């Protein structure tokens, strides 16, 4: 638990006011540790669990240091680069910085260049030399190569957010090329929820004598904040179980339903539509503006249920590809999927009461990042995982990683409810399943992309 308050950290009044407006009573642990060190100019390598407030842990000292430097330097220049693996995260980081600079927005300007498709449309934005530029490595490099972004004489700090994903999203070469265009000395931050060999490689590439903040917290909030359940079932009963959970209001509030592939998300959407349960889908083949729009609408409470296909299927093959061929590609993934897409990583879905793993996550990391979409900051949350019998070995892996087997107690408690109630819905669900044909899924998939494209063009 953090012991200091924000006003004890020596921050500018304008920043303190913005923090108060956000309703944050005190810093999170990672913020309490990172902010003073970063204000001293130290390089930081930080690992803290998902949802622990890492974005503000680097944004607050960066804004503070910029406000300080503005007292003496008047020339406008890009002083900070924030590199993110996904476009959604870029937009979110920009939004957080805008909130934190709401009382000094004339002094500190931020631009997110990750999201827009057209590079030329971003030129005017960069010509104004925003103090902070947020972007994916490929987009930042593209502007550097075109001469629209030059930080060789001005860069003071660089952040790599979700550092463990940067390489697996195919940005290794871009990042190396980008580093050649930076000055010799600047402050660096590597932020991640997990440390892996890629973070180690990045550390050697980017950091100079860093302070390593590896918080001794468990990977997920404890059971007083996050309740984790599992239901073991037959694969074909998952739809029936979900319907029962919703029908009996055993799941309440905003819920993210995670599935492992795009077709499956439409199958689930169409299935729930049969019972007039509206949902929205989020996946990598939707245009980026639509994805950001859907996340914003979900956060504003337009939908209670969002069916998300997480990025795992995109990140992992690329890793394998690297091992096999020695180099990674970037750009569009299979079937027009966007490789700069991420749902279970970094996205701040707000006030999510339940994460439901409809499909079992394919790795421990994936479980942790999905679970991290609820119980964020100090809020409570529930993770409910449907486990088909063929997936029991994966469940055991997750139990072990979360420390469940040593004590003989399960971390993911069995969720108990009366089976007779489920059986009562079986026929109704069978009929609903029958009407969700392959053709219907195909059409829904195409329709969604078309509609989202139209609405994106209209906006
Ligand atoms: N000091 C604070 N007090 C209360 N809420 C906070 C505080 N700092 C950040 N938050 C909120 O906590 C949520 C999670 O923050 P953030 O997205 O930065 O976490 P994160 O550690 O980057 O998570 P992830 O690893 O999933 O990206 C956000 O909604 C943010 O507004």
TrEMBL record:
A motif (Q motif) lies at residues 4-32. PROSITE patterns: HELICASE_ATP_BIND_1, HELICASE_CTER, Q_MOTIF. Residues 317-339 are annotated as: Disordered. It catalyses: ATP + H2O = ADP + phosphate + H(+). The keyword Coiled coil does not apply. Its EC number is 3.6.4.13. Residues 225-423 form the Helicase C-terminal domain. InterPro entries: DEAD/DEAH_box_helicase_dom, DEAD_box_RNA_helicase, Helicase_ATP-bd, Helicase_C-like, P-loop_NTPase, RNA_helicase_DEAD_Q_motif. It is an enzyme of class 3 (hydrolase). The keyword Hydrolase applies. It is found in: Cytoplasm. Residues 4-32 form the DEAD-box RNA helicase Q domain. Residues 35-213 form the Helicase ATP-binding domain. Keywords: ATP-binding, Helicase, Hydrolase, Nucleotide-binding, RNA-binding. CDD domains: DEADc_DDX56, SF2_C_DEAD. Residues 320-332 have a biased composition (Basic residues). PANTHER family: ATP-DEPENDENT RNA HELICASE RHLE-RELATED (PTHR47959), DEAD-BOX HELICASE 56 (PTHR47959:SF21). Belongs to the DEAD box helicase family. DDX56/DBP9 subfamily. This is RNA helicase. It comes from Staurois parvus.
């Amino acid at each position: 638990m953090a012991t200091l308050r924000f006003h004890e950290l020596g921050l500018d009044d304008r920043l303190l006011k913005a923090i108060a407006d956000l309703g944050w009573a005190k810093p999170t642990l990672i913020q309490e540790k990172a902010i003073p060190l970063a204000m001293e100019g130290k390089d930081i390598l930080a690992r803290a669990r998902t949802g622990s407030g890492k974005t503000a842990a680097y944004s607050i000292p960066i804004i503070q240091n910029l406000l300080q430097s503005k007292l003496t330097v008047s020339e406008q220049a890009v002083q900070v680069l924030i590199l993110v693996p996904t476009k959604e995260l870029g937009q979110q980081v920009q939004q957080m910085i805008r909130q934190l600079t709401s009382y000094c927005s004339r002094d500190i300007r931020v631009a997110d260049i990750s999201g827009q498709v057209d590079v030329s449309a971003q030129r005017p934005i960069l010509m104004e030399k925003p103090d902070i530029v947020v972007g994916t490595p490929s987009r930042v490099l593209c502007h550097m190569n075109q001469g629209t972004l030059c930080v060789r004489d001005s860069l003071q700090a660089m952040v790599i957010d979700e550092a463990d994903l940067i390489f697996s999203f195919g940005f290794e070469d871009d990042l190396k090329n980008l580093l050649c265009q930076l000055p010799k000395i600047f402050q660096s931050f590597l932020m991640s929820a997990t440390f892996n060999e890629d973070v180690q490689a990045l550390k050697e590439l980017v950091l100079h004598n860093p302070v390593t903040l590896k918080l001794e917290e468990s990977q997920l909030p404890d059971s007083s904040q996050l309740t984790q359940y599992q239901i073991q079932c037959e694969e074909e009963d998952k739809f029936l179980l979900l319907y029962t959970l919703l029908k009996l209001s055993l799941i309440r509030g905003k819920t993210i339903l995670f599935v492992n592939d795009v077709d499956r998300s439409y199958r689930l959407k169409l299935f729930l539509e049969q019972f007039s349960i509206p949902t929205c889908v989020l996946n990598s083949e939707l245009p980026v503006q639509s994805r950001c729009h859907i996340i914003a609408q979900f956060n504003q409470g337009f939908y209670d249920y969002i069916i998300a296909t997480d990025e795992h299927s995109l990140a992992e093959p690329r890793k394998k590809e690297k091992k096999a061929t020695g180099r990674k590609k970037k750009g569009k993934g299979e079937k027009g999927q966007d490789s700069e897409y991420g749902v279970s990583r970094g996205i701040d879905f707000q006030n999510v009461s339940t994460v439901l793993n409809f499909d079992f996550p394919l790795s421990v990391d994936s479980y942790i990042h999905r679970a991290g979409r609820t119980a964020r900051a100090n809020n409570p949350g529930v993770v409910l995982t449907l486990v088909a019998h063929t997936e029991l070995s994966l469940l055991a892996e997750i139990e072990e990683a979360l420390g469940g087997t040593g004590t003989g107690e399960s971390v993911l408690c069995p969720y108990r409810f009366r089976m007779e109630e489920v059986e009562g819905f079986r026929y109704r669900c069978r009929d609903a399943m029958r009407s969700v044909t392959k053709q219907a899924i195909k059409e829904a998939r195409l329709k969604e992309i078309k509609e989202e494209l139209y609405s994106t063009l209209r906006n």
